[in-house]
Design a protein that fits this description.
By secondary structure, this protein is α/β, with parallel strands linked by helices. It has five helices and five strands; from the N terminus they run βαβαβαβαβα. The protein has one domain (4-112): Oxidized Rhodanese, domain 1. The protein is globular.
Length: 120
């Protein structure tokens, strides 16, 4: 089972990840489509933001591993948390060990963390 975090708990997860691996920022893997990113997006603050639509993940998984490593903390994000949960599970099944899902997605992020992010 993939661990899930609420957006309100993201900062605590980020701080734990930074304490465990202080040399590099944790990753938020946004798996939404490009049009969704234009509509609403999080701002990278104490993490690296990587945009990779869900359909591209299998073809780009080696890129993610080469850039960050399979043991790097990754939080998967989508609109409501379902696509990102599937991606997190896929990454875990393919050797990524520090993957979590952002429960509720960017919609919950807008409600719990940054109300300036529009709902769609």
């Amino acid at each position: 089972m993939i661990p899930e975090i609420d957006p309100a708990g993201f900062s605590a997860w980020r701080e734990e990840a930074l304490a465990a691996q202080p040399a590099s920022l944790p990753v938020v893997l946004d798996v939404r489509e490009p049009w969704e990113l234009q509509t609403a997006s999080v701002r990278a603050d104490g993490f690296t933001l990587v945009h990779m639509p869900m359909r591209e993940v299998p073809a780009r998984m080696a890129e993610l591993q080469a850039a960050h490593g399979a043991d790097h903390p990754i939080a998967c994000l989508c609109h409501h948390g379902m696509r990102s949960l599937h991606v997190a599970q896929y990454l875990h099944e393919n050797g990524f060990t520090q993957v979590v899902n952002v429960h509720g997605g960017i919609e919950a992020w807008s409600q719990q963390v940054d109300p300036s992010i529009p709902s769609y």
